[in-house]
Write a structure and sequence with these properties.
Elements lengths: L14 H10 L1 E4 L3 E7 L6 E4 L8 H17 L8 E7 L7 H18 L1
Parallel strand pairs: 3-4
Antiparallel strand pairs: 1-2, 2-4
């Protein structure tokens, strides 16, 4: 059986990596999600998630995380390379892959351009 998940080298895990992205202060938002970007010096992009408990219960937060990871996985070839991205969902919008994928690409490109 083939594993199609997001590889571990494509994820931000350390607190220092998240802090470096936040300190760079390069972001783009559409009201539903905020994307922070910072160069990482690697040949690939990495994804970090910051999903607040204010967004909802564990079921809602985990759904956001699953859908953001899936949008990142499916659109990796369209995303800017050599960039660390931290995605923060905002508001009470119901997460849906059909708008999340294009929004992630658009906002990541905008944030990375200024990074």
């Amino acid at each position: 059986m083939t594993h199609h998940g997001l590889p571990s080298e494509a994820r931000l895990r350390r607190s220092a990596d998240f802090q470096r992205v936040y300190d760079k202060r390069q972001s783009a938002s559409d009201g539903r999600i905020v994307v922070y970007a910072a160069p990482n010096g690697l040949p690939h992009s990495r994804l970090g998630l910051s999903v607040s408990s204010r967004l909802g219960n564990a079921v809602v937060r985990n759904r956001w995380k699953r859908l953001i990871r899936e949008a990142f996985r499916l659109r990796r070839d369209e995303l800017p390379t050599s960039v660390d991205l931290v995605v923060v969902p905002r508001g009470k919008a119901e997460p849906a892959l059909d708008w999340l994928g294009p929004a992630l690409v658009r906002l990541a490109r905008r944030a990375a351009r200024s990074a």
